[in-house]
Amino acid sequence: MNPIVCWQNFRRVFSSAVVVVFVLVFCCVIQWSSSAQTRKRTVILAVSAESGEASVDAVAILEGKRLLSPYNDEQKDKQKAFGAEYFKKGTVYRLIFGGGDAGTATINKWSEGCNNIHAQATVSTSARLGGKVMALATNSETLGKHSVSRRPPTDAERAAVMTLMKSIYQRNRTPASLMPSIKVTNLTATDLNGDGKYEMIGSFTLAAKNKFERDLFLIATPQGAAMRADFVKFQAYQPPPEGFLSSIDFIDQLDVDGDGLGEVFATAGGFDGYALLVFKKVGGRWRQVHDQIGDAC
Question: Measured between alpha carbons, how far is 87 from 134 in angstroms, rounded to an integer?
Fold first, then answer.
């Protein structure tokens, strides 16, 4: 065959092959891009309810086993983008109570606060939310796919926790005259590791006449008829003139990393605002592994 003809045929075949490869690559890129845009990240939200309407705050983005902040208080553009994507009217989230499926939360609207964005939602659940009794919500189809394990403590459990709580206050040099004034702001029984034995998570406050505050956040485990402290966060401080407290309150628990032990989600007060916290048991000890700004005005 004429060498020139052979070369021309090779060029035509090679050019056609390049075109086919380019088209295939282009189609794959378009498909991947479209899939990436429609595939939303896993979000975890805090849900509190008053007078039938629920308020929703973003706590974290779950990436693999890591909890990431969705934005900070200075990233107004990211806050608005998050609101437009995740707080869109009609978006339905799974409600998590006691680490398990407990209904749904449907977003009604969202708005900007002082340092953060917030959503309002309609909640469909048998859980009695209100006051210090809160819940979580997520768009994940796999997290918390088991029954609810959360209830009020029994009389015996409450008595055992109160004995433990008083011993902690005493160890922190609380005057005996003030002990009767300790208030229980919340005490919840929940099974964190699925062994059928309920841990106790409680919040307690004590304000002296001089306004000196003593707050306790406690995770306790049953030990026979008694309770053993598994995590203690005791705070003794003088609040600012405005009276803002730093007390910590339980939101709910959820096993986010699949290790069989629920992480504990909580809210903490602060100067003119609040924060959202996550505690995890690492190496046999509880420690704070995540925090996210709530709002501050």
Answer: 19
**Residues 259-283: tens digit of each pLDDT:** 999 999 999 987 667 899 999 999 9
* Sign of the torsion angle spanned by Cα atoms 167, 169, 173, 176: negative
Beta strands, E only, 165-262: 183-190, 199-207, 213-223, 226-237, 248-254
- Kindly report the number of other CB atoms within 10 A of residue 256's CB atom: 25
Candidates 93, 102, 101; CA nearest to 56 is 93
Cross-strand pairs, 64: none
CA 141 to chain centre: 16
User: What is the distance between the alpha carbons of residues 168 and 262, in angstroms, rounded to a whole number?
Assistant: 24
Q: Is 172 helix (H, G, I), strand (E, B) or coil?
A: coil
What residue spans of the chain are helical by DSSP H?
A: 3-38, 76-86, 155-171
